[in-house]
Design goal:
2 copies of one chain form a homodimer. Chain A folds into 2 domains: 255 residues, nicotinate phosphoribosyltransferase, CATH 3.20.140; 176 residues, TIM Barrel (Alpha-Beta Barrel). Helices cover 41% and strands 17% of the residues of chain A. The first copy, chain A, contains 16 helices and 19 strands. The longest helix of chain A has 24 residues. The radius of gyration of chain A is 26 Å and the shape is elongated. The N and C termini of chain A lie far apart (57 Å). In chain A, 57% of the residues are buried.
Amino acid sequence: MPECPLGERLALLTDLYQLTMAACYFDQDMHDEATFSLFIRKYPAHRGYFVAAGLPEALHYLETLRFKEEDLEYLEATGLFKPRFLDYLKTVRFTGQVHALPEGTIFFKDEPILEVSAPILEAQLAETFIINAVSLQTMIATKASRAVYAAQGRPLIDFSLRRTQGVDAGLKVARASYLVGFLGSSNVLAGKVYGLPIFGTMAHSFITSFPQEIDAFRVFCRNFPNLTTLLIDTYDNLSGARNAVQVAREMAGRGERLGFVRLDSGDMAAISQEVRQLLDDQGLDYVRILASGGFDEFKIAQVLAAGARIDSFAVGTKMGVSDDAPYFDIAYKLVKYAGRPVMKLSTGKVTLVDQKQVHRYYEAAGRMARDTIALRHEALPGGSPLLRPVMAGGQITRPLPSLNECRNFFQGEFARLPEEYKALQDPPFYPVSLSPGLRKLQSRVEQELQHRLRRES
Amino acid sequence: MPECPLGERLALLTDLYQLTMAACYFDQDMHDEATFSLFIRKYPAHRGYFVAAGLPEALHYLETLRFKEEDLEYLEATGLFKPRFLDYLKTVRFTGQVHALPEGTIFFKDEPILEVSAPILEAQLAETFIINAVSLQTMIATKASRAVYAAQGRPLIDFSLRRTQGVDAGLKVARASYLVGFLGSSNVLAGKVYGLPIFGTMAHSFITSFPQEIDAFRVFCRNFPNLTTLLIDTYDNLSGARNAVQVAREMAGRGERLGFVRLDSGDMAAISQEVRQLLDDQGLDYVRILASGGFDEFKIAQVLAAGARIDSFAVGTKMGVSDDAPYFDIAYKLVKYAGRPVMKLSTGKVTLVDQKQVHRYYEAAGRMARDTIALRHEALPGGSPLLRPVMAGGQITRPLPSLNECRNFFQGEFARLPEEYKALQDPPFYPVSLSPGLRKLQSRVEQELQHRLRRES
């Protein structure tokens, strides 16, 4: 099964300019190899690192890129394109190579997440989809990893589907949050597509559809005795908790155990303490407390600091849209064409030229110390190269790791990231430098451009 | 062609609890009619109104809701559900009715966007998808309408696809922004699916792939003489503008006219004035200036206030993710079951009971004056009812208006909205009251619940 049920044959899911530029390249017989580099230009507020995610979807897109008959008919009907170019599109395939950070890699601003090398027309066509796919999952994986860190070992579940920005995002959020350590998601289709664990509770509507709250509780636990989480705030948290206690006793009489009660509104620290006390007083210390309602890393940290007795968090909307940073300043830039390193000079947006590699240096204890961005084939002693070849000749070169393997890989990565960069507020900048080779080439290309500009003006 | 190529037969794109609650309803033979109401609980910062959008997708979902064989196999494999319930799911269809605001309607907080009435199991199952579909397009239509307002008649184009939260969002953003007056989108698939106009310029990579900027300009305008927008900031805005002037003269010599130059970085007010001057000095007053780069309603208003000479804006990421309000506090709540009006009391989240209607009152000049939320069948003199029956027996009752009809409808609506509610910063609250009938019923149900709570505790 493909990783993304929505990502197949979306050749037209692109910006019009990709096709008009392609037509120009075709017209000019420009088929030389181009390298594009995907990277994040700056940290949004409070981010001290990023987590690479979304690679399988990007590669799957490249492997299956095809213009269908109906796509070509639509393009023809626009009246913009010459028949010869449309004939060419019929047979166009992605034939290039990709170097990329494995999913779950921790990386920093300016570092290439992936580099695509292919005939310029093919590499350019892929821009829109690649940026979209990688930026969404990288943004969510980064946000979700902060929630996992804030929860200090308490399990987290993704409840965001209803308010993600569309259904594709709903699937990707479930996947990316699982990648960085969430226990699972409420999203059933994500469970089916990605094989991740699914979880659920009950809605307020379920409670209010019964004459009494306790009737709703009883029906649910009789149907799902091993999956029962009772939502107790529909009318009042404490009276809800007393009804849950009653039902838990009835369950115990049948040899069953109530799993969780769920808080969804009010002062979480205070209410969780009262509910914990009430449960403990009744000998129900095995019943755990799940909390939902506006949680992200900031609110998790805040309620735990306030002494909340919460065992698990359902994390929804704010994680699912990356509320405090709903986009990343990510770019896919041409860095080399026909053997010539290239860059743009636009105000504040200078790019790093040529094909690159990121080398990571560790302290003796295994903690990450610093990174160096280098030319791809530059010899640098002592560092571990992070970008790996993942596609050649338009084909994935070896089977991609499974989602669970990536999840384990991320866990190892995160353990090596020093604590200060994990700070939820204002983390420091991790040290990233440029290699001597890259600095020299960068400066040469920039000088040549400035020189030409002066000559022309 | 369906309105949404990604929205079909996504029965599993739901929260697990929808299915476990459904299993409970099925187990209890609870098939009475339930009404759920979809509404926004509060205004995000700076929003004074909302624009209803996303209805066709929600209705299409309801009409085509089916559990496929492979869906049922997955649910069976979870081990959670009884065979009798899975057999039932095989044949389940949405058979209910929907009342809704037509797309493009301006509405306010607490007002129902739509109300679904159906056997409770069917109406509950649809919750996740309906919230997701309506909230995304409503949020984007609202944000985009503010950009249109800020641009004071200048055409806007959606350039957000690369950074929307997923590919589904990319399509919906193109659609919702067109609905409220954008001229079109760069998104080719949206052009094909929704029949909206598509536009494009060129990328920095196109410029840098040629030895000289002017070579890139020349190739593009020879291939697309009627569609040429020259991106002039790759190396330096003014030297780019001088190259554009040269190319525009060459085009004029061939009887062609350069359409636009595009600014993408730097101080937009200052640069646009310099570029305008340069173009005018060369007799190129017909060449217009398009600006892109971080625009939303706030930046558009700011650069225009600073005297920018910009004719058209490409509006991307910040509109496409609704940057300053990336989600709405939207809820789908049970308001009536088996003839009984119901509500929840959770702290700060009280819901309005029963089936409702919104009545709008206008001033003599046609300007909107105030709204009243009433019981659906309550007689209220003088107001115009906003919610209309759109689905009965699980079928759309009459053909939905086309996207262009909705676009015209919105334009009329927006013209009737008094200026103060359109303010980009801190608009006042539009007056919305509750009818006598609704107030009375609301208070009776709330008292009965409070009474029962006191009795139980």
